[in-house]
Amino acid sequence: MDDQTRMLTGLTGLGGLSQPDVGDPDSVRKQQSLGQPQQDIGDILQQIMAITDESLDEAQARSWPEESPAHWGGSDDPTEGGRAGGGMAGGGLPLNFQHRKHALNCHRMKPALFSVLCEIKEKTDWQTANITQTPGPDRHPHTHRHTPRLKLGIKSAPDLMASVWSHKLYAIITSFLHAATTPHVLSIRGVQEEDPPDPQIMRLDNMLLAEGVSGPEKGGGSAAAAAAAAAAGGSPTDSSIEHSDYRAKLAQIRQIYHSELEKYEQACSEFTNHVMNLLREQSRTRPISPKEIERMVAIIHRKFSSIQMQLKQSTCEAVMILRSRFLDARRKRRNFNKQATEVLNEYFYSHLSNPYPSEEAKEELAKKCGITVSQVSNWFGNKRIRYKKNIGKFQEEANLYAVKTAVDAANVSAQASQANSPATPNSGDTYLGQRSLNGEGLNFTPSLQLQVDTLHRATHLTGGYEELSSSGLFTPHRLDANSWQDTTNPPSVTSPPGPPGSVHSDTSN
DNA sequence: CTTAATGATTGTAG
DNA sequence: CTACAATCATTAAG
């Protein structure tokens, strides 16, 4: 409305006219009947304004014969249905309109008025041009965003994309449409986020290409899937099903992406045409410079390219989600089998004083358990931290494995003693569940005593090979190495209400 | 359903 | 790079 009022007041000043009643046909006619020159100009102005409005409506009616704006995005959202149609509300009678327009065109004052309008327009043009640059209170402020942190737990990336995008497109175009059909608004809003940083869009493009979304046909997609799987350092086992699934989903994303892209391009050209028609139509009653048209087209293209970028970004996100979903090993976690955990635990508890397996030891354990070295590392990392965090909880387990190792040692020693020497300090650096008995009320003997004690019990339980415990088996150099858990040692989480003396300290409640 | 267990990832410090 | 700590996401058990 700004431009109109500006023009109007400017002209009224020119003609010495008092404030006219805008949009009241009766008053127009009344003034007309006076037949004075000033009234004449004011009269023409009234008509121009009325016609300008109506021409818009009419043009709109022509361009959107039976459609709501849903046509653009293919959306069926009913809540926005009346939006662009709002301009239609004041739609006048076409016949009357044509008649008045004709009258205006033939008016004797028209050429003069037209030139005046041109002049004024020229003057005000730079203003609107400046205003154009100001960011409007628009949506999607979250366009550039650094790499999204992948939150998992989304059901399906393609679905997500599909549902979001047609709606988005529709909403944006609708807003633009609405703005465009109201000329004085058009130049002010609908621009805001131009110059999307080139690196950003480049990055997106690259990623889409690498992911095989925007590349050629199928070949790229599967290659990308394979590459992605390889990059994940995946286990050689399960793959085939996951891969086909992944590929299918990727193809889905791809398809959505392309169809959306196509839709945008089509919509863009269609919309450009529409606006051009509008401008051409308006140029008959209002001066429109080629520069203005150019600018308008530029704005449209910018807008659409920004939409396109959003699409790209969204696609990237969808792909990331998809990848994380299928390639993230976390998602297909399987517990290690019994035997594997047994082996690991055995090693852990027998090296409890220093549970840091060397690289070779890890490799061996990995082989024995049928898992990867890094899995072994993970396991020990988790184990250490969890053991340290709540020693009490692991007492039972510790005892159990102490028994195990004791038995093994005993067996070996038995064999050995059968063969020969009675005192067999084998199982070199093993043993045992050291502090595990602290909670039992045994206050405090350093680990040596406790270990001996534990072994006593263990050997007892297993039939008793007492001689082991007295055989100088426990080399003290190990005992002070228990410091791996001394840092941050929590107030010795011992079996909380556990009656002293019970071997089994169930801390599970 | 809730909860515990557990394998994997992420961020930080040395 | 490794270890640790916190946390996530899945699985198993109740």
Please characterize this protein's 3D structure.
The protein is mostly helical and 509 residues long. Among the domains are: 110 residues; 77 residues, Orthogonal Bundle (Arc Repressor Mutant, subunit A). The protein is 62% helix and 0% strand. Helix 1 packs antiparallel against helix 6, helix 3 crosses helix 5 and helix 7 packs antiparallel against helix 12. It is rod-shaped, with a radius of gyration of 41 Å. It starts with a helix and ends in a 48-residue tail after the last helix. It binds a DNA duplex (14 and 14 nucleotides) through helix 15.
What's the layout of helices and strands?
Elements lengths: L1 H14 L9 H10 L2 H27 L6 H4 L20 H13 L3 H24 L23 H24 L2 H4 L11 H14 L6 H14 L8 H43 L7 H38 L10 H13 L8 H11 L3 H17 L1 H29 L27 H15 L48
Helix pairs in contact: 1-3, 1-6, 2-3, 3-5, 3-11, 7-11, 7-12, 9-12, 10-11, 11-12, 13-16, 14-15, 15-16, 16-17
The protein binds a DNA duplex (14 and 14 nucleotides) through helix 15.
Keywords: Activator, Developmental protein, Differentiation, DNA-binding, Homeobox, Nucleus, Transcription, Transcription regulation
Protein name: Pre-B-cell leukemia transcription factor 1
GO cellular component, one term: transcription regulator complex
